[in-house]
Design the sequence.
């Protein structure tokens, strides 16, 4: 079943002024439950504007935004619930930490939802574990943490609300390669465990190739496509036109295919490319 | 070759900031005896995990930070000599991660003119420098635009133009592409390479993107305030296991070659570009 649905969703900033700008233009989408989804597109393509519709921060200029089949704007009294069901983590969320301990920061959202103290405690611990945060960090001031841990504390605050949809805007910006990988593995584990839908806005084609099942591609305020990740990376030429690219390894594999080598079309991670090359060499996939 | 940057045994620690703990000596050193010489006109990439000391080192080059012991020279000017500060900052300009924090004016060309104006450069010369700088980053036709109308990659190129208008010999870029989309990253990298190759400007690039580092002449890896690898990209990236152990990575093509080598195929450890990878695979298949 679709968790999120948009119908002709359109949003125009500063309508009726000389600065009028349509940032999302007639987008029709149907996003499933229990999926790990990458959101890509050039800067200014409308990703953030679209994401802010998913949890009711912005109201469509025209068109509809549906959550679990219901128009979220039909009854404004229900908007509060929408914000609990769809969690949005902005870029550099660590700047929004404000409580005196990490635990209190994580508890902020769940408290607002009116959960019991016992339930809140359980969620704090579970979430900290999923993000690999040492429990002793929980009693520290968020400001005493390293950059990566601060970011986790901020993300944990939204995860602890157990939203049905979690949207993360560039959660790995500024992290080093190992930090990126760890963060993304933890987010994927969270997604699997909670069977929720996670939308990951990212500028790294390598990261979305490795960690997502589907890609939502925006271009110039329009939805370019919403398809399985492997399908999208087959469209290297089109992606380039959109100011995007495919991962380095996908590009090499496609060049080899063009030269006539019998390789599958959907090779965009190092692991898959290695197995395909080995298969071609007649050795079969090596398990490791 | 002439050395433009010379770091000699630099040790640095941040001063302790709490009141009860005022003895700076109690903070651990962040740079632990760093010595490094950089050739004029070269392109060096600096890699290291978060917190390893890269930005701290970069800030020593243009005298934002001064060593506790050891010396930093830029074109033989000692950064600890206060009288040389202006001259040093003019020779070595810095570009930071977030383009929005670096742009001060509301019109592109005014932003680029900002630093030379502050230096007291005569107006006619400023005009010339601003035009040249904007042309060098391919943003001349945007000179009358508002920076807010630009994409991240364009803004970052304006920030670079602002530095170029100072006519520096060296530009230090601290993760300039971290906030950009793929096209913006490519624009900035092409600009950096062009300035290096056509204008002979020395480039020091700090990055977490291994494919960007692969474009440099030399890679310096910093770990825990020390230089632990310093070689050509090919040699550095051939150390796949060590790079991963350091929290870093290698380009995807290097990793594929490494994986194939591990299961017994004769693939070179020095593959760092797509073309090299293609050739190696074609030879194999
Ligand atoms: N608050 C705003 N007021 C006016 N225009 C805006 C505002 N926020 C974004 N825009 C414009 O809307 C377009 C889409 O922006 P955004 O949704 O932030 O894209 P992305 O997240 O893909 O970079 C851009 O052209 C941007 O300049
Ligand atoms: N202004 C500061 N005061 C105190 N410690 C700092 C300051 N800036 C950085 N540090 C510390 O110095 C170390 C190195 O930081 P930095 O040079 O920014 O590393 P990198 O750029 O490699 O990520 C880190 O442990 C960081 O916490
Ligand atoms: Mg955005
Ligand atoms: Mg840094």
Sequence:
């Amino acid at each position: 079943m679709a968790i999120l649905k948009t119908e002709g969703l359109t949003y125009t900033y500063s309508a009726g002024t000389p600065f009028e700008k349509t940032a999302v233009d007639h987008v029709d989408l149907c996003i499933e439950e229990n999926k790990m989804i990458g959101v890509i597109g050039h800067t200014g393509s409308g990703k953030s504007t679209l994401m802010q519709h998913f949890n009711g921060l912005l109201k469509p200029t025209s068109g509809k935004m549906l959550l679990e089949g219901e128009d979220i704007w039909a009854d404004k009294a229900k908007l509060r619930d929408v914000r609990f069901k769809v969690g949005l983590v902005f870029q550099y969320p660590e700047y929004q930490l404000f409580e005196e301990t990490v635990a209190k920061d994580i508890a902020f959202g769940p408290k607002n939802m009116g959960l019991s103290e016992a339930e809140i405690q359980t969620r704090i611990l579970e979430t900290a574990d999923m993000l690999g945060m040492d429990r002793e960090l929980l009693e520290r001031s968020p400001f005493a943490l390293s950059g990566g841990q601060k970011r986790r504390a901020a993300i944990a605050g939204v995860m602890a609300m157990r939203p049905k949809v979690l949207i993360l805007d560039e959660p790995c910006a500024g992290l080093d390669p190992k930090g990126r990988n760890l963060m993304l593995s933890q987010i994927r584990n969270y997604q699997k465990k909670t069977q929720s839908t996670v939308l990951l806005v990212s500028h790294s084609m390598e990261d979305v190739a490795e960690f997502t099942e589907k890609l939502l591609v925006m271009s110039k305020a329009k939805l370019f496509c919403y398809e399985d990740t492997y399908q999208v990376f087959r469209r290297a030429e089109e992606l380039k036109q959109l100011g995007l690219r495919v991962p380095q390894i996908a590009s090499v594999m496609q060049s080899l295919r063009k030269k006539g080598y019998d390789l599958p079309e959907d090779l965009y991670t190092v692991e898959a490319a290695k197995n395909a090359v080995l298969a071609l060499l007649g050795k079969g996939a090596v398990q490791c | 070759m002439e050395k433009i940057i010379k770091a000699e045994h630099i040790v640095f620690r941040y001063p302790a900031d709490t009141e009860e703990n005022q003895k700076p000596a109690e903070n651990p050193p962040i740079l632990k005896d760093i010595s490094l010489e950089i050739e004029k006109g070269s392109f060096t990439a600096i890699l290291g995990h978060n917190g390893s000391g890269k930005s701290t080192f970069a800030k020593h080059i243009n005298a934002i930070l001064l060593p506790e012991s050891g010396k930093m020279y830029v074109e033989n000017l000692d950064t600890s000599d206060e009288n040389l500060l202006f001259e040093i900052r003019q020779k070595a300009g810095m570009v930071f991660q977030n383009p929005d924090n670096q742009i001060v004016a509301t019109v592109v060309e005014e932003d680029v003119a900002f630093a030379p104006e502050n230096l007291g450069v005569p107006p006619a010369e400023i005009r010339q420098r601003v035009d040249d700088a904007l042309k060098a980053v391919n943003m001349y036709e945007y000179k009358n635009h508002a920076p807010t109308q630009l994409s991240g990659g364009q803004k970052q190129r304006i920030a670079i133009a602002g530095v170029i208008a100072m006519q520096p010999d060296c530009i230090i870029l601290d993760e300039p592409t971290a906030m950009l989309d793929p096209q913006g990253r490519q624009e900035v990298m092409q600009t950096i390479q062009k300035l290096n190759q056509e204008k002979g400007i020395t480039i020091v690039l700090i990055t977490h993107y291994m494919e960007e580092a692969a474009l440099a002449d030399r890679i310096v890896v910093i770990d825990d305030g020390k230089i632990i690898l310093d070689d050509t990209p090919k040699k550095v990236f051939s150390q796949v296991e060590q790079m991963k152990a350091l929290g870093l990575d290698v380009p995807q093509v290097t990793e594929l070659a490494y994986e194939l080598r591990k299961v017994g195929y004769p693939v070179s450890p020095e593959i760092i570009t797509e073309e090299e990878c293609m050739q190696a695979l074609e030879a194999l298949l």
